[in-house]
Amino acid sequence: MNQPPQHFPCTTSELELSTDSPPAASSRHGRRLYPIMAVLHYTLDFKLRAPADVSATVHGLQSIFQEQEMTENVHNLYGHGYLATFVGKNGRFAILRMHSHGLVTFDLQCLEGDDVAQVDNLLNALEKKLKALLDGNIQRIKRLPVLIRGSDVDRYWPTADGRLMEYDIDEVVYEKDSAYQNIKILHSRQFGNILILNGDVNLAESDLPYTQAIMGSGKEHYAGKEVLILGGGDGGILHEAVKLKPKMITMVEIDELVIDGCRKHMRKTCGNVLDNLKGDCYEVLVQDCVPVLKKFAEQGRTFDYVINDLTAVPISTAPEEDSTWEFLRLILDLSIRVLRPGGKYFTQGNCVNLTDALREYEKLLGRLSCKVDFSKEVVCVPSYMELWVFYTIWKK
Amino acid sequence: MNQPPQHFPCTTSELELSTDSPPAASSRHGRRLYPIMAVLHYTLDFKLRAPADVSATVHGLQSIFQEQEMTENVHNLYGHGYLATFVGKNGRFAILRMHSHGLVTFDLQCLEGDDVAQVDNLLNALEKKLKALLDGNIQRIKRLPVLIRGSDVDRYWPTADGRLMEYDIDEVVYEKDSAYQNIKILHSRQFGNILILNGDVNLAESDLPYTQAIMGSGKEHYAGKEVLILGGGDGGILHEAVKLKPKMITMVEIDELVIDGCRKHMRKTCGNVLDNLKGDCYEVLVQDCVPVLKKFAEQGRTFDYVINDLTAVPISTAPEEDSTWEFLRLILDLSIRVLRPGGKYFTQGNCVNLTDALREYEKLLGRLSCKVDFSKEVVCVPSYMELWVFYTIWKK
């Protein structure tokens, strides 16, 4: 989602090491030599009003695990409640824990392809029995949707503020490691294809509101204007801007493999605009935008609109500053230099919850070589599942 | 989210038994006698290209658990890979499993209030060591955002199609069990307060797009018209409709406690419209809508717009039909009877992914006593985190 550098600890890391590997959805291509089975992880939690009677509860549950022919193992928790694990002959593994402060957690891990009805029966039986045993002492029963771990098709893509989100992904459409980043295009049942760069959801085919917001939310007149797009390899902005009959659009995208993937698999976003890198009123330069911006600034070339659609931590072939914030500032400074008086600079900011990062960015805007003013707008981008801030910046 | 009956197995159940209990955010009210600590559940998964050497990997990891002074227990998995559990003196519990088909899963459960830096160090050390040990054989490393289990403030509210979503909930604002349902209003950092009925996300203060869609997406002229709202206890539709100067709005909401909660805590949605149940151009009847509809039908009273904003499985004081679909049909039939020729009936349908339920609903529309036509629209409602279908229905 292209967020500026974040100063909060990220609870999720996603490292994809896919070069030279079979595509993730490789079972469809028959190129994998061993069966791919995800682990299905079920949870069932009872939050209690007061600590429960451990031995009565455990005794009451015994028959359920015995019926399942699971081998029980009671662990010494050094006074931190009760913990038993259970192993089934089919590799099922269960954990029952009764915390001394009044919380019962149950986990069940089994392999994809296990008998779902049997697993459901076990969970239902356990829930029913615990309800009876803990009657009157229950504050909340929570059974989360099953966690699918190690699947070929990864459905979990956290928000920019680090929350767990399960997407309705059913297919890996495209996956490459370019010289710059890991590129994935995944199919979502409701959002269409989604472009994911280095684990960040960038844009889905459903996300016209993103493109509209980063172009000024329909309040600008592009006809006859000169436009510079930084990044934008998915072709969304270019596709929408071309329709508005500008004089000329120059787009500078560093990563040809992003363009390739989106040209093939994000047609609802880019239309046919990426079929050729040059059109009647546009040109796509497959280059690092920093030297291009410098060249334009030196030549005195200017634009009516500069649209920064670069990724989170902008990619460069030769970053000149150590700090990402300083690098962001370099791009901003250069962009404002090539902006005509009266022109506008548009960019996406961050998720609305990352207030520290947003404040830091706005501070940066106050420290540019050229004085600028800005406005911001909060937009709901369908595939993001969190509200996103967009900035409009202009010379004072 | 008010979805019609679903014929798919629901992977999530949420049973709240809060009557007579201290409020969920009770620690703030000092009414709870024992400390509330959630369990933090971390996961770290390595998806491999090929099965790994178990003994070399396990041997390589030993020092990490020894350093943590965790007691190891190796379980017999009956040939289904390797499984070891580890218990720490502070109640930490870890599970390392190496599946024979090339997946390594690691779980770490600890209590809220545990040393986060230490836990992070353990996870980082493990990730680093596994990276080294499995070098060249790694296809994906996945570390999900931590699961928070048994917290006072429940952040997990699944989508209508059963996917796991973590909301940025930070406070329980209101919680009641009425005669009809469990009512919660939770505060989301980005969406404002969210009304949740029986575990279903109904409406957040951010969700004006929902209200606009169920009123005809700005394409209708309400001025001077007569409007009937079924349900709508959050006051959102009433608040927006009143602005449009209709002749009269009649709203029929069964649950006074929903109105009470929303009047206090959903002000961005309802404004001051629920402060009085009667206004210049509206009246709120706190009644079951079925007898009211029957009375209107008998009296020959008709409306220009009927807006059905009832919950998923509509609540009734005396449902006359066993099947929920038949009950839905009863409400639809009665609503169409009180609709003027040329009038429109608006309702929300379901999440766009539940194609079977949507198809079933559309079949129902073909079986009404009065022939109707319909159109539908897919809308992004911010707090839903999934695209939603809305229907416009009119007499043929």
TrEMBL record, chains A, B:
Matching InterPro entries: PABS, PABS_CS, SAM-dependent_MTases_sf, Spermidine_synt_N, Spermidine_synt_N_sf, Spermine_synthase_animal, SpmSyn_N
Keyword list, A-Z: Acetylation, Phosphoprotein, Polyamine biosynthesis, Transferase
BP GO annotations: spermine biosynthetic process
SUPFAM superfamilies xrefs: S-adenosyl-L-methionine-dependent methyltransferases (SSF53335)
Domain of life: Eukaryota
Record-level Gene Ontology MF annotations: spermine synthase activity
Entry keyword Kinase: no
Enzyme class: transferase
Keyword match Acetylation: yes
Pfam families: Spermine_synt_N, Spermine_synth, SpmSyn_N
Record-annotated active site: D309 (proton acceptor)
Catalytic activity entry: S-adenosyl 3-(methylsulfanyl)propylamine + spermidine = spermine + S-methyl-5'-thioadenosine + H(+)
Subunit structure: Homodimer. Dimerization is mediated through the N-terminal domain and seems to be required for activity as deletion of the N-terminal domain causes complete loss of activity.
Protein name (database record): Spermine synthase
The species this protein was found in: Sinocyclocheilus grahami
Gene: sms
